[in-house]
């Protein structure tokens, strides 16, 4: 049985409070269909870098909205042993996977476009990856992270090394605002 469509941030929080249910977080992320009006209430864009907005936060699950201007690209990273689900709510993003050569430099091994309405699952099998908005319009994606990500392994192009850094967001959603 399909989950009822999730049309508001409040419905999302309510469903996350109930836990993954019989269909798991796969079914929950697929059920999210926030309108442009609902997204306008929470979206944040910056010319400097894509923005991460925490919509929901517990020790078990975290919901993060990411807002991307055209040409913005994330860092090459992974998150150790956490699980993630994502759904592109607006626009499209490229998901690029990486391996590392003998000198420790990243080598792109696979890239695919994820279009509006499409969703996916992330775990350590994906390895190092990054998202990029290669499209001509803004993009918005919802991420659900189980076993909340506290640290990321991030490739630093300046030092050409992988560094463990604390996971962070740019904004926390406050329903009272």
Descriptive report:
The chain has a six-stranded mixed sheet, covered by helices on one side. Strands 3-10-11 form a three-stranded antiparallel sheet, with no helix packed on it. The protein has a three-stranded antiparallel sheet with strand order 6-5-8, with no helix packed on it. The mean pLDDT is 90. The chain has one domain: Jelly Rolls (Sandwich), CATH 2.60.120. The protein is mostly beta strands and 177 residues long. The protein is built from three helices and twelve strands; from the N terminus they run H-H-H-E-E-E-E-E-E-E-E-E-E-E-E. It has helices at 9-18, 24-31, 36-42, and strands at 51-57, 61-68, 77-78, 83-90, 92-100, 106-115, 119-122, 128-132, 139-146, 151-156, 161-166, 171-172. The chain starts with 8 loop residues before the first helix and ends in a 5-residue tail after the last strand.
Supply the key terms.
single chain, 177 residues, mainly beta, Jelly Rolls, six-stranded mixed sheet, three-stranded antiparallel sheet, 3 helices, 42% strand
How widely separated are the two ends? 35 Å
Largest sheet: 6 strands, mixed
**Any idea what the CATH architecture is?**
Sandwich
Low-confidence stretches: none
Strand order of the largest sheet: 7-4-9-2-1-12
Percentage of helical residues? 10-25%
Average pLDDT value? Answer: 90
Task: Assess the beta-strand content as a share of residues.
Answer: 35-45%
Kindly identify the CATH topology. Answer: Jelly Rolls
Give the class from helix and strand content and strand pairing: mainly beta
Helices, by number, come to 3
What best-fitting shape do the alpha-carbon axes yield? Answer: globular
CATH homologous group name? Jelly Rolls
Please report the total strand number as a whole number.
12
């Amino acid at each position: 049985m399909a989950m009822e469509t999730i049309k508001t941030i409040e419905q999302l929080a309510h469903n996350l409070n109930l836990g993954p249910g019989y269909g798991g977080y796969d079914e929950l992320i697929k059920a999210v269909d926030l309108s442009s009006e609902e997204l306008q209430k929470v979206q944040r864009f910056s010319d400097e870098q894509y923005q991460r907005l925490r919509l929901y936060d517990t020790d078990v699950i975290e919901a993060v909205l990411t807002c991307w201007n055209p040409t913005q690209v994330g860092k090459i990273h992974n998150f150790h042993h956490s699980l993630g689900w994502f759904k592109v709510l607006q626009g499209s993003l490229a998901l690029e996977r990486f391996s590392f050569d003998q000198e420790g430099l990243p080598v792109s091994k696979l890239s695919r476009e994820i279009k509006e309405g499409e969703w996916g699952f992330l775990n350590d099998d994906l390895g190092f990856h990054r998202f990029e908005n290669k499209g001509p319009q803004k993009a918005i994606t919802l991420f659900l992270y189980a076993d909340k990500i506290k640290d990321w392994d991030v490739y630093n192009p300046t030092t050409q090394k992988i560094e463990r850094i604390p996971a962070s967001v740019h904004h926390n959603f406050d329903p009272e605002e």
